[in-house]
Design goal:
mainly alpha, 12 helices
Amino acid sequence: MSELANLLINSRHRVRGALASIADVDAEEASGFAYVKLAFAYRTLAICHLLLRADTRAFFSNLCRSAQTYLHLLMLVRGGRTCDPVFLCASRVFSFPDALAAGYLQCARELARLLPTVHDPRFEYEDDFLLIHCMSRMILAVPPQPAVLDAPLARWKAVLEGGVDPYRDAFLALRDNDAQALNDALERLIEARKRQFDEGRRNLSIDEETQITDGRLFIRGLALIRLSGMIGMELPHEYPMMPSLARLSIAHPPPTADLWRYPESE
């Protein structure tokens, strides 16, 4: 059995365990960790289905489950629930790019409205925060308004202190509606990502599960491509780590709001 096939099975077990924690209202549920574990297990399932079986339906539905799970946690917090603050940092909410990649724009916008608008220096770097903040500013600007990126991009430039970041370059291209500049930024992001995972394999700093999932599929890149499509930009159909198979259409109609409570059948 392949590593991906084993991970798919293990992720299903993790889904059941996290759902049981939530149902039992145990310590992991109280801290919010059970919801984060559940969302991440759904995300992993989505990637496994795409890479192992080219199953776009399961890829879509499990990304949606990931997004709904994290949205449920953030709504609980908005209603007064306490939660470990690390789970509330914008850059830690991996399910927001999941929603964008899935084309689940309704949930992406709901998540964006609940994300922090300032970074938490205890748990995240400001440039990581600004990446997600720019995504949220774009998805909430209906109709598209390029100027919403001006302030965060200016702050990002100051944070870099003369350095460069291809993620920032991607948002500059999105602001300016420059498809060639965005293509160049995406290619640089892919190359940087390859180097990161190659180095992580050599020095064992990136675990094997991450290597075979995020090392092969670039969800944040897919989210950037989603944002580009929303403003009418045209990009190549194929990129390394972002195959056309993974570039899903907009979810019409969206999935039922409680899909996250019901894992896929085995």
